[in-house]
UniProtKB/TrEMBL annotation:
Signal peptide: none annotated. It comes from Amnibacterium kyonggiense. InterPro entries: Histidine_triad_HIT, HIT-like, HIT-like_sf. PANTHER family: HISTIDINE TRIAD HIT PROTEIN (PTHR23089). PROSITE patterns: HIT_2. The active site is at residue 105. A motif (Histidine triad motif) lies at residues 103-107. It comes from the Bacteria. This is Histidine triad (HIT) family protein. It holds the Pfam family HIT. One of its GO terms (molecular function) is catalytic activity. Residues 11-118 form the HIT domain.
């Protein structure tokens, strides 16, 4: 599953180091959260382990399930902090599924006043909401 080549730091490691600008909106000892640069929903956050040893969620679940559980809890807190109680949590896994950064990360997708399902079922996003 690993597509990473060589030992170049991932884009997320470079953000964590401050080499690429991106506001860290929440962090713990092990995990940090940024806003996705190309949001696909009104709330689109990335929850990322500070260590880059796992390329995707399959590797992470096998190697450090506690860290995976921490990511889920941080996702919950970050969504709540952004104004969403309900959210979609997505791990693109492998090139064929759209994964482009091989430093495991979770996408947190939501609207500000509810979950994405509500927006979809209502026929679209609330007025004024932009992706
Ligand atoms: P993937 O496609 O691997 O599941 O997700 C990678 C995500 O990282 C994409 O949604 C992409 O928009 C986001 N991304 C890539 N480069 C940057 C960046 O420099 N800053 C931020 N904030 N997000 C980025």
């Amino acid at each position: 599953m690993t597509e990473r080549v060589g030992t170049e730091p991932s884009i997320f490691t470079r953000i964590l180091r401050g080499e690429i600008p991106s506001e860290i909106v929440l962090q713990t000892d092990d995990v940090f959260v940024i806003r996705d640069i190309a949001p696909q929903a009104p709330i689109h956050l990335l929850v990322i382990p500070k260590a880059d040893e796992y390329a995707d969620v399959v590797e992470l679940a096998a190697g450090d399930p506690k860290l995976l559980a921490s990511m889920v809890e941080v996702a919950r807190v970050a969504a709540s902090q952004a104004g969403a109680a309900d959210f979609r949590l997505i791990f693109n896994t492998g090139v064929g599924a759209g994964q482009t950064v091989f430093h495991v990360h979770a996408h947190v997708l939501a609207t500000r006043f509810g979950g994405l399902a509500e927006a979809t079922m209502a026929g679209g996003l609330p007025d004024g909401e932009e992706a």
